[in-house]
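G., before I forget:
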Amino acid sequence: MQMPFEWRAACRRGEYSQPTVEVPRATGYAVANLVVMPRELALDFFLYAQRNPQPVPILEVTDPGDPILHTVAPGTDVRTDLPRYRVYRRGALVEEPTDIRRWWRDDLMAFILGCSCTVDVALAQRGVPIRSEDEGRGALFKTNIHTRPAGVFHGRLVVSVRPVPAEQVDLVADVTSRYPACHGAPVHIGDPGAIGIADLGRPDWGPPLRLQPGEVPVFHACGVTPQMAAIESGVDLVITHAPNHMLVTDMQAEDLMRL
Amino acid sequence: MQMPFEWRAACRRGEYSQPTVEVPRATGYAVANLVVMPRELALDFFLYAQRNPQPVPILEVTDPGDPILHTVAPGTDVRTDLPRYRVYRRGALVEEPTDIRRWWRDDLMAFILGCSCTVDVALAQRGVPIRSEDEGRGALFKTNIHTRPAGVFHGRLVVSVRPVPAEQVDLVADVTSRYPACHGAPVHIGDPGAIGIADLGRPDWGPPLRLQPGEVPVFHACGVTPQMAAIESGVDLVITHAPNHMLVTDMQAEDLMRL
């Protein structure tokens, strides 16, 4: 598959349910995170995003009850066109389905958020080595950094990590800072312990990561942050994409770069 | 006065009630627009902003009932610290006071939006002539361009205009595009009639403008757009800054430039 609609159509038919974390690097297209929540939470969520733009870069929001996207991937049905979802009821994970039509309600709104995997395209073009998923791409960690609260939303920042050769750290910081819609500049560079991460080999989500000699870990804010905040609000229903099973959008990665 | 807190303190004491449109160029500080609305409208307003980022660049939003800013001008009381306000009840202008404490309620939220006057600083530094208010700075026009609707919000785009020497039009487009939080790139360049403006000498708000020979009008989205959309929603209470009587923030204009 090379075109975004091919992934989405395969998801809709139930024929694709694998991670999409490597799609940007393979195709040049942007992937995006999903959080679905009841309308009653949406105002607080917008406030939370406004106060925490790095972990919560909103790309598109649907009207209550409308599962169809109009901007980042027009015609996409967010209930069927992602490879895999997580369904939380009152804060508890109850299901990890490939289709959420049976959970859909008239009061649900879908928030589409930028994803740092999208920037892999630009980094690879500049000669930065990108791990494959087997080598730890997609490892995510809870930090000890607190987000700015808003209404029912609060909690600690979740980060992704890039192992970067020391001489390329400045380059990675510069390139990623040009993608504010994909979490922007690093939130931390170096010692994982300084932000409360005990062991890169034991991520909270995704595959384990091992640093190679000469590599520095570079941490970026992650869209799992607001997902966790939504889940921990204890609201009756929150649905997210399963970690690393993002929406494949119609936007080229470079469309999300600021000029 | 040279420091932002001096303007705000003078406003609070009732000693300053004049336009602040020339403050950025005089001091280097950013000014910002204000829209206050009941919580019941706020979700739709966030959706409207997300779908219309050029006219609605949100810089800060207060919690319901809280009139104090924490980010763009910490400690500012939005009820007293702007020079002049407009109060609308069910869509009708009822008062143009210098203090809105008597209108304040526990369900009101203040939205602070970027303002294109802030970019005057960067343009003047690059040799672009900036009109004084007497010469038409602050003239605002309703266009025939429709915004993307969201909930109760819809309506036509309001624009500000810069008369620019023809040879500097590309420069102005380039510089303003680097300030997305201040309405960003031009929405139109040249013929006012093409966007439904009959006469630059008869603005909908602000002073009349006369083009000089060799000048091209350059139009930018304006924060009056969402103010009008809020007013026209017919909600019981909306309060805005009076046109050209913006909040003077603690942010330097360059703080709002993207890198």
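Residues 39-51 of chain A form the longest helix (13 residues). Chain A touches chain B through 17 residues (CB under 8 Å).

More on Monday.
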